[in-house]
Amino acid sequence: MALSRWVLAAALAATVASTGIGHAADYKSEYTVSTVLPTPFPWGQAAERWVELVEERTEGRVNLEIYSGVQLVSGNQTKEFAALRNGLIDFAVGSTINWSPQVKELNLFSLPFLMPDHAAIDALTQGEVGERIFAAIERQGVVPLAWGENGFRELTNSTRPVTTPEDLAGMKIRVVGSPLFQDTFEALGANPTQMSWADAKPALATGAVDGQENPLSVIEIAKMWEVNQKHLTRWHYMADPLIFAANGATWKSLPEADRRIIREAAREAGRWEIEKSRAENEKRLATLRENGIEVVELTDAQRAAFREATESVYEQWAPRIGEDLVEQAREAVAERHQ
Ligand code: X2X
User: Mind giving me the DSSP string for 274-330?
Assistant: First the structure.
């Protein structure tokens, strides 16, 4: 009797071990998290917050390690999504711009002057458009978890104040490696050059390019005034959301309870980062001015001239993004709560 009870207990213990209840044996010692920007950029802070929350709430079971500067893909930011898809990267907090060459729907956010304000960004990411975008990512084997924000991208240059498209004529502008950006700046009469973030500052320092575009946080923290940037046009022409995401196989390998923790932590980190970086914009602008950058605020009429000059980008890109998705986005923006 006693023996049979012992046998039963031993058999049960063996079953528990082999089915891995608790999954102790299934965890990797480290899960990679890719980002382009490190702390103190809001983007890096978002990743850091996520990692801290996950480690705390999984009591160290899920050990996330941040690899900034997209070092897992040798700094080539437009290769990040492919690496996340094929498992070279476990998790990432990535910009819609950098993933748009693989997920064509993400070009939606790069359409010039689609989103005039923060409420417009929220109307897309927090609504049905955002769900459709996440579904498009999921179809490619990557699990989207939450939204963050890099921010409205403003234009800086070394040469002159830019208030009209004509001011951009022939100006050499560094843009991210996205064909849509190439088309936008060509439509404006500028001379765009695609390069990764790692190459941007050196190119500005040597004068190989005259200008660039990035959110105020990036312009301030990267100290763009040190690489000849003297003029900033606050044209709010587009904003790039960030997406927290997981490789599909990595995601499936994790117990349901941990997945819930990771997803919720990503949502919290994303909400925290969006709020924080929006609140910091005015302070950042003041720092830029203190460092000698001249800021041009556009009037509605001036902004309209830029919008008209880039209409051709919609004709070129709406069919590739999906006409109905672009239309749905335009409606969501028009109906947004301000
Ligand atoms: O490369 C850029 O400009 C950056 C850092 O903003 C992105 O990764 C989109």
Answer: HHHHHHTHHHHHHHHHHTTPEEEEPPHHHHHHHHHHTHHHHHHHHHHH-HHHHHHHH
